[in-house]
Amino acid sequence: MFQMSLITASIHPMNLPWLNIDESPSTQKKLFDFLLRNNKVVEKTDWVLSNSSLELEPQGFNLVPKALPIGPFLATNRLGNLSGNFWPEDSTCLQWLDQQSPGSVS
What we know:
UDP-glycosyltransferase 83A1-like; transferase
């Protein structure tokens, strides 16, 4: 049977685990248990879809052969949250792009 995990969790940059973890044994155990469960799920899937691209994170995708980059997708419709996007949108290139022939810019 074909199985696939889709990792699309939204996270604000200030909620990254390594910025908010304390060093207590109970917190470290919770994080370890979470990572262990996550790894077991990945082992049972055929692919893990990732909101990134091979060009952005080649080393990461080399470490996780089941990861399939399908992005990056912008999270512009999430009511002002910075979900999935750490940088503000830069629209300064849109006028130039609009002046190019269809399909000529990749």
